[in-house]
Design brief:
Blueprint lengths: L7 E5 L3 H13 L4 E4 L2 H8 L5 E6 L1 E2 L2 E2 H11 L5 E5 L4 H10 L3 E4 L4 H33 L3 H11 L4 H8 L3 H14 L5 H11 L1 E4 L2 E4 L4
Parallel strand pairs: 1-2, 1-3, 3-6, 6-7
Antiparallel strand pairs: 4-5, 8-9
Helix pairs in contact: 5-9, 6-7, 6-8, 7-8
């Protein structure tokens, strides 16, 4: 995946007049936008759309803006979101933030206020995407290692000496050293500390005899 240079704005609202008004305001602000009148319409285009910042009402028909955020995070990427509500409470705000909203704007609001919040969310969103893409690339590189290299990597992470690794994996000392060198080259790390940092970034756990990539974090 390639990190986009900027972030589009996805507007979701079941009120056609509000949807049109917000879409026009964001276009005037210089942002590329996609406007959706329902959650189902948004979901239909999610897979083919570039990463974007969600601007949605907390209540969209029978759906919820928080459900929308959760769906995007589960099936696509960690999209930033600005939610709008006419009946905001501290409990709702906390709940929305826990679901991944960057902020919640209470009605009535000025377009300038909303655009300011959206711009901050777009900036934060690019930071989130950068971390997501780096983690994805790290997972892909680790997952591409041959089984024999994974076995050596698992022992290296446990800080075992090369001779002990050779015995445990049932290979020669020379093979251990060769695979370690190739692991460092394939993962583009130069030191053991860099290797551990990469594994932490990828959120990797070694369980039993199999390397598993934790998808839920």
């Amino acid at each position: 995946m390639q990190l986009p240079p900027t972030m589009d704005v996805w507007v979701v609202d079941d009120d056609a007049s509000i949807l049109e008004s917000l879409d026009a305001a964001f276009i005037r602000a210089g942002w590329a936008t996609l406007a959706f009148g329902s959650v189902s319409a948004f979901k239909e285009q999610l897979e083919t759309s570039s990463p974007g910042c969600i601007v949605a009402d907390l209540h969209i028909g029978e759906a919820s803006g928080m459900d929308l955020i959760r769906h995007v995070h589960e099936v696509a990427w960690p999209a930033p979101a600005v939610l709008i509500s006419g009946h905001l409470t501290p409990t709702l705000t906390v709940k929305a933030m826990r679901q991944g909203a960057i902020t919640v704007v209470e009605k009535p609001f000025s377009i300038e206020e909303l655009c300011s919040e959206v711009e901050l969310a777009r900036i934060r969103g690019l930071e989130m995407l950068k971390a997501f893409y780096h983690r994805d690339a790290a997972r892909e590189a680790i997952g591409a290692l041959p089984d024999g290299h994974r076995a050596v990597l698992r022992e290296l992470v446990d800080c075992r000496p090369h001779k002990q690794i050779a015995t445990r994996v049932d290979i020669s000392l020379r093979t251990v050293e060769k695979r370690k060198k190739e692991i460092f080259e394939r993962l583009n790390v130069g030191t053991f500390t860099e290797l551990l940092n990469l594994l932490q970034l990828a959120d990797v756990s070694f369980l039993s005899t199999e390397l598993q990539l934790q998808k839920g974090a």
